[in-house]
Structures are given as structure tokens and as C-alpha cells.
Design brief:
single chain; five-stranded parallel beta sheet; elongated; 9 helices; four-stranded antiparallel beta sheet; Rossmann fold
Length: 240
């Protein structure tokens, strides 16, 4: 595996196309170039897969049975800015503009050269990572290799998505907005509307630590404050 392949290995791509032969070819080609790849035969299957897996990029065929690729993209763009490359057998400028207006990051017509597809995917991912780093820092917090966005409650490690459940997102948001300050269980319960059980908080803390700490016994970021609760330590020198 080349150095470039090693850079790709942490990226997980979902290929959505009703052509099984093309899905298989794309999956093998992208895996041979270092990506992790899953595939779906239509939009419905893709939605089910995306409920349990966070992907770094979607490759979506436009013409599919059931919900077409453009309508699928329009739906997910309501709450998800995941990088997306559209594939289509239609080559007219109008078709291309439709996808780009909805929010596709790039567009390729079939048939295509696999090497070109690879380059376009890599460029999309580079732009996406760069945009994350350039975001307004009032909307996010950085700790170590991690970046947490307050708006969409997404967590990234070195620009790559880290899957969090809804409860983990809400809890990490509490710690992030009160970073470097200790929060008790009562503090957290109040911040979350007073309807969360103490046991649920403890369990979520453990699960978050599994995803952000090298050694959960000696946490660097989500630290225990004896007699109080926990603190998200950013380790940034703010000149205090």
C-alpha cells in the first residue's frame, strides 16, 4: 500500500447505486486505494446504513428506482453536510446544475475513468477538511486532535467524523460549552432539561471516553474532578 493509500484508510465511503456490477467494481477499486467502503442499492437502504455508521463521503447515482439520487441528496442536506459526489448517465449541463444547486460537491458522468473518480474524491475530502479547520472558532472547540462543532454536534478527529449517539452529542455539548470547568451530575441534569437519569450520564461519560481517550484509566480530556464530577480539559493556554 502506498503512502497515499495510508492517508485514505481512515475515510469511509458509501457508494449508492442500483447497478450491482458497478457497486462491486467501485468498492474493490476504492478499497485497493486504501478507503473503507460500504454500498447500498438504493436510497432506502442507504438511510438504514447511515443510521448506524458515520461516513466521510457519499457517491450517489442519480437515476435509481424509488427515490432518485437528487431527491435523496436534497433530503439529507437538510441536516447533513457530508461531502457528496454524484454519478449520472445524463451529461447535459442542466442535470449537472441540478445536483450542484442541491448541494453536491462534484458531479461525474458515466462512463468514467476510475482514476479520475479517485482524484475527485480525494480533492473533495481535502476541501472538506480544510473548511472544517477554517470554520468560525466561536462555533467549535478544539481539544487535542479533536474538533467539536456546537451547531451540528459533530465530533471530528483530524478532520474525520467520529460517531456519537444523540445522548453522547448532548452530553459532550454540555462539557464543551463549559470547557475547563467542572460539571456535577446536577449541573448536567439541569443543562439537559432535568430529564436524564444519573446512571445515563455515567454511562455516556464512559462511552465518550472510549472514543476520545487513548487510555480510559488515565483520561487526558474528559477528566474526573474528585468530589464534583467531570471536566473537558482542552489543554489550551488562554493566558490565565
Amino acid at each position: 500500500m502506498s503512502n497515499q493509500d495510508n492517508k485514505n484508510i481512515d475515510f469511509h465511503i458509501l457508494v449508492i447505486d442500483d447497478d450491482q456490477r458497478l457497486r462491486t467494481l467501485l468498492r474493490k477499486f476504492l478499497e485497493n486505494n486504501g478507503f473503507r467502503v460500504s454500498d447500498a442499492e438504493d436510497a432506502n437502504q442507504a438511510k438504514i446504513i447511515m443510521e448506524s455508521i458515520i461516513f466521510d463521503l457519499l457517491v450517489i447515482d442519480v437515476m435509481m428506482p424509488g427515490q432518485n439520487g437528487l431527491d435523496f441528496l436534497k433530503e439529507i442536506r437538510i441536516k447533513n453536510n457530508i461531502p457528496t459526489l454524484m454519478l449520472t448517465a445524463m451529461s447535459s449541463p442542466e442535470n449537472r446544475l441540478d445536483g450542484l444547486e442541491i448541494g453536491a460537491d462534484d458531479y461525474m458522468t458515466k462512463p468514467f475513468e476510475p482514476r479520475e473518480l479517485l482524484i475527485r474524491i480525494q480533492n473533495i475530502l481535502k476541501r472538506f477538511i480544510s473548511s472544517i479547520k477554517k470554520n468560525n472558532y466561536n462555533d467549535q472547540i478544539k481539544f487535542g486532535p479533536f474538533l467539536f462543532n456546537y451547531n451540528n454536534l459533530n465530533l471530528y478527529k483530524n478532520g474525520k467524523s467520529v460517531h456519537l449517539t444523540t445522548s453522547e452529542q448532548k452530553l459532550l455539548n454540555c462539557f464543551a460549552k463549559a470547557s475547563n470547568k467542572a460539571l456535577s451530575r446536577d449541573n448536567i441534569n439541569n443543562l439537559l432539561g432535568g430529564n436524564i437519569e444519573t446512571r445515563s450520564i455515567d454511562v455516556s461519560v464512559v462511552r465518550i471516553r472510549r472514543k476520545i481517550e487513548e487510555d480510559q484509566r488515565y483520561p487526558i480530556y474528559l477528566q474526573t474532578v474528585r468530589g464534583v464530577g467531570w471536566m473537558l480539559k482542552t489543554h489550551e493556554d488562554k493566558g490565565d
